[in-house]
Each structure stands twice: as C-alpha cells, then as structure tokens.
Amino acid sequence: MPELERHHQLAGSRPTMEDARVTVVVVSRNRREELLRSLGHHRSPVVLVDNGSTDGTPDAVRRTHPHVEVVELGQNRAAAGRTTGALRARTPFVAFADDDSWWAPGALRATADALEAAPRVALANVDTFVGDEELPDPFSAVLSASPLPHRQGMLPGPRILGFMACAAMVRRSAFLAAGGFDDVIRFPGEEERLAWDLTARGWALVYLAGPAVHHHPSRQRGAPERRERGLARSRVLTAAMRLPWNAVAERVTAELRAGAPGRLGVLDAVARLPQALRHRRLLPPEVLADIEMLDRVTTDGVREPTVP
C-alpha cells in the first residue's frame, strides 16, 4: 500500500459532521493524491464522482475514506459529473468542491442557513482563499461589486450572474430542475449557462460574504493557455445555446481578436456547435438585460475565476 494511502487509512476516521442538510459533491479524475488529502476536510456527507480515473482513485478512496460514497462513471463527463453527484444526494442543499478544495469550518452551516432563510435563492457563492498563503481570489471582489438589481426582494448578499463552482452551494431541487451542469460545455466555464438558466427560472444567485472555501490548486493543472482556450470555447457555446444571434457574433468576434487561445477556442466550439444548437433556447428579456448590464460595467477584464 502506498505510504500516502497508509497514512490516510490510519488517520481516516469519519470527520465530524457539521450539517446534515448538505451533501458535498466532489468530481475528480486522476488526481488521487490531492483528493485523498482533501477528502478528510469535508464536514458533511460526501459523494465522490470519478470521471474515469486510471490511477486507482476509486479503490483508494474506498480504502482510506469508507464513509465517502463513490460513483464511478467509467468515462470523463467533466462538470456534468457534478449533476450525477447531486442526483445521488438526498439533502436539500449540495455544496460543490474540487479535488483540491474544501469548505472552511462553519462555512457549510452558515451557507445552508442563508439559503434556508431565503427561499428564492438557488445558489450562493462564498469567498475563496487560494494556496498556503490564503490569498483572496479576485473573482470574489468582482462578485461582491455586482450592480444587478434585487428583483427577488431582500437577499442575503449581492445578486450575481456568475459563480465559481468549487465555492458554490445550490438548492438541489432548483439545480436539477435547471438541468445542472451539461455535457455540452463540460469544463472550464461551465457555470455561465447554469447561472443564466437559474435566473431565467426566477431564482436569485447571490454572493455571500463570510463563509469561505480553501483552494490549493493542483500541481497537475494544465498550462494557462489551455485554460484560456477552454474558456473561449465555453463562452462561444454558451452564447450559441442562449443568446440572440447578433450577441453570438459579437462573442465570436471578441474571441477571434483576443489572441491564439481565443481563436483555437472558437475552432473547438465549432466541433460541438451541432450539439449546442440542439439545446438552444433564447433567454427572456430581463436576463438578457442583466447580461448587457454586466458587459457594460466590466472594465477590468476579470470575467472568470483566476484558478480552476
């Protein structure tokens, strides 16, 4: 047995449960070491969805963290694996975590309390602190400054139209009714379409200050150019699924002008365009107005989380 697994088996007793209203859903693929380190930090029931790992991840988790429910997909479904995890959950709220992130002590309870007290809120994005230095992720500041009006009445924080999946808790029923994460967008950039669809259904998404997620980015992360290429692909596909054609053209043009990663992302999107168009559904005018407002006020270029 590898030394890391032996260590976790000796110290891997079930962690103290913080909140029975929340299931933590983790999706992983071939990041066994990071995953084994992070799983012990979770303080609610955990569902691990394995996206076709070939490094022995499922068996290692069963040996070292027997309290974790392991779902083996046998293939890489990327972000859509989180939807599978939410379907397996039996709690009213689902908190997402990556294999290199975890919710800080007290954060699950505080966020569930906020969602329980605000029945029109489908999703709360909390603060994220990155690495051993615990640096605040700049995306939290972007969310906290959201100018969107509170159409749903009193909310526990600013209304937002984007989020970081690994720092989000969702109302399970609303998440599943909106389709969850899909097989078209995959990863990264999977959050945008879901945020738009939840809002179109009359739900609010909020930034919640106080509760926090710790994110220690995996050493197996790809090159930044690869991530930018993936984000460009996702932005184009999301636009094709939900925006008017003139807005789709504007997005494609912006990506083509953004540099090599953007151009390659557009080419990648073309290959998936038939699949995206099968799911095309135009957003209602009020959501399109929200998107236009955010596009107007975005001046610093921070549109996505800075780390995956």
From TrEMBL:
Could you list the residue ranges that cross the membrane? none
Q: Which InterPro entries match?
A: Glyco_trans_2-like, Glycosyltransf_2, Nucleotide-diphossugar_trans
Question: Could you tell me the superkingdom of the organism this chain comes from?
Answer: Bacteria
Keyword annotations for this protein?
Glycosyltransferase, Transferase
Q: Which residues form the Glycosyltransferase 2-like domain?
A: 23-175
Similarity comment: family membership: Belongs to the glycosyltransferase 2 family.
Q: What is this protein called?
A: GT2 family glycosyltransferase
What organism is this sequence from? Promicromonospora iranensis
